[in-house]
Design a protein that fits this description.
The chain is of the alpha+beta class and about 600 residues long. The protein has 18 helices and 25 strands.
């Protein structure tokens, strides 16, 4: 076949196939142009979820008659001062959006500079008209009608009107979160869908206000701020508490230099940061803002600019993981204050003990170093006391002092599972198994980082029958399991003998523990390094060794558990992301009994 040069209209339609996938893609390109023009307000109007009409109006810098004509030509841009693609300071830079959109729709542009006259022109199926005078306020209005009329085959690939509208809303929300100083209004002709006023204050205040407006008050109440920096790479934003999670990744928002992205590296780092505080089928809620020099990131690796490539991916990933983990650890025993989509967590008003005595680090350390009641000592080495006697009258003053701690003083145990504690501001309900599970896990992690987990020899080895495949999997990882204090060896066909267990686990259920570990390793498959999954191994061990529901605890044992929680990072949730405790204020209690 003979070679030929493709006509410009066909070239633009090919480009449109990469840039203009659906109405949301058009909205993205037009809104980005509006933001790049310096607009303080952007209006988006839709008809038939964008298929019949997409109109974007801004109050930006506007264009002259000559610029208006050039704007719809291929590879024409005002956003690259030079030829360096690593010095990109705007959302757009390729000059492909408008000619691509004009090749598959009926496009019209009307624009006016503040000190000039208004002009308009149209592009229909790739054919440009002459510009002519018009009436318009300073700024630009772009109308896209009959999207894909020139390429009707593309219409078959569009989803339902509701799904297309949902994609547009998501796109506008992401751009609005990235640029909080800009106001946004989205409507469908009959109703206002999204209205966001420009935010004021410093950048941190603007971002938090905009996130609250888009994601709701629940996010603001259940997220911790991020502030980390490493080698000119800055991480800001907010990460949701592990107990404030979702069943999918829809509420994970990532921004690089003000650009919304859906980058696999960043999503993987976010998942890794929550690895040992969230169940594998749950997803954190987060809005992460990365700012770094332009030379350190390439935004020209995806047709829709949805992905980026970092010069030092390891640095970025490490900053993300460490920054989020540090922020979650700083939250201490804090847990979500509203209902999670995982299920009804006990709806209560935001519970923030205020004006309450906060023990110093020295006071907590002293409390933890004191001997604790017998019972917990079976599971936490170093805590040993004879069986506790009932609280005497002279001990009441000490009990009242305990009320002033963040998690208060234990008052009762319900169903041998839940601890009821009293604070000056309300009641705390603690899941004893979930709480102790987190305590054991954090102790094992600390021991693993310092010197390795110490093991204790069993008086008699315990034989666990696993079957040929599971036993073989464990046999392949004997040395790595020994690092966490679990010493096993093959014991005939399909069985292993457990000779030592981690000392921190106390009297663990060896049979169920080993079976659970074998199941975990089988699920991970063969292509993994067990040293990279030690956190998961530790979590499984902690789950199978903690104080179980159904076990009676004395008041002293319960108070010891509360003090341990206050001194332990991430104790607001268990290893699976479930809350360890919930609170209800005295005001809510009084409302329940119609006292206010």
């Amino acid at each position: 076949m003979a070679l030929r040069v493709l006509p410009p209209t066909l070239v633009n339609q090919i480009a449109a196939g990469e840039v203009v996938e659906r109405p949301a893609s058009v909205v993205k390109e037009l809104v980005e142009n509006a933001v790049d023009s310096g607009a303080s307000r952007v209006e988006i109007a839709l008809v038939e979820s964008g298929q019949a009409l997409i109109a974007v109006t801004d109050d930006g810098s506007g264009m002259s008659a000559d610029d208006l004509s050039l704007a719809v030509e291929r590879h024409v841009t005002s956003k690259l001062a030079g030829d360096d693609l690593l010095d990109i300071r705007h959302l757009g830079f390729r000059g492909e959006a408008l000619p691509s959109i004009g090749s598959v729709s009926r496009l019209s542009l009307t624009s006016r500079q503040k000190s000039g006259e208004a002009w308009t022109l149209s592009v229909e199926g790739g054919v440009k008209s002459q510009q002519r005078p018009a009436a318009h306020a300073p700024g630009t209005r772009v109308e896209v009608r009959d999207l894909f009329y020139a390429t009707p085959a593309r219409l078959k690939f569009l989803k339902s009107p509701r799904a297309e509208l949902s994609a547009i809303i998501d796109m506008v929300e992401r751009l609005a979160m990235a640029h909080p100083a800009v106001g946004f209004h989205l409507s469908d002709g009959n109703r206002s869908i999204l209205r966001l006023a420009p935010e004021t204050g410093d950048l941190q205040q603007q971002r938090l206000s905009r996130l609250g407006a888009v994601l709701g008050r629940d996010f603001r109440d259940n997220a911790v701020p991020l502030d980390a920096e490493r080698e000119e790479v800055q991480l800001g934003g907010w990460a949701g508490l592990p107990t404030y999670n979702r069943g999918n990744a829809a509420q994970q928002y990532l921004f690089v230099n003000g650009r919304p992205v859906k980058d696999r590296l960043l999503l993987g780092a976010l998942k890794g940061a929550y690895q040992d505080v969230l169940a594998h089928d749950r997803y954190p809620v987060a809005a992460l803002f990365l700012d770094l020099p332009g030379a350190s990131v390439d935004v020209n690796v995806h047709p829709a600019k949805a992905e980026v490539r970092f010069r030092d991916a390891g640095l970025v990933r490490g900053l993300l993981v460490s920054g989020i983990r540090h922020a979650l650890a700083q939250a201490g025993h804090r847990t979500a204050v509203t209902e999670s989509s995982a299920g009804p967590i006990f709806q209560a008003s935001p519970f923030r003990p205020s004006g309450v005595y906060r023990p110093s680090a020295e006071a907590i350390k002293s409390a933890l170093s004191a001997q604790a009641p017998y019972g917990l000592s079976e599971h936490i080495p170093g805590l040993s006391l004879p069986p506790a006697a009932p609280i005497r009258q002279e001990d009441e003053e000490a009990t009242q002092d305990a009320v002033q701690y963040p998690l208060g003083a234990a008052r009762a145990q319900i169903k041998d599972t839940y601890i009821v504690a009293e604070t000056p501001d309300g009641l705390i309900l603690v899941d004893q198994h979930a709480a102790h599970e987190r305590l054991v896990m954090e102790r094992m992690k600390a021991a693993l980082d310092e010197r390795g987990v110490q093991s204790q020899a069993l008086l008699l080895p315990e034989v666990v029958d696993l079957g040929e495949s599971r036993a073989a999997l464990l046999a392949d990882h004997l040395d790595d399991l020994a690092k966490v204090g679990l010493v096993i060896e093959p014991f005939g066909p399909g069985a292993v003998a457990v000779r030592e267990t981690p000392a921190l686990l106390g009297k663990a259920d060896v049979q169920s523990l080993v079976r659970a570990l074998a199941d975990d390793i089988a699920q991970w498959g063969q292509s993994f390094e067990l040293t990279q999954r030690l956190g998961d191994i530790v979590a499984t061990m902690a789950c199978h060794s903690s104080v179980r529901a159904g076990r009676k605890l004395s008041i002293e044992e319960m108070n010891a558990l509360l003090r341990q929680m206050e001194a332990t990072p991430l104790s607001g949730q268990c290893n699976h992301g479930r809350p360890t405790h919930v609170g209800i204020s005295w005001a809510d209690v009084e409302k329940l009994f119609s006292r206010r």
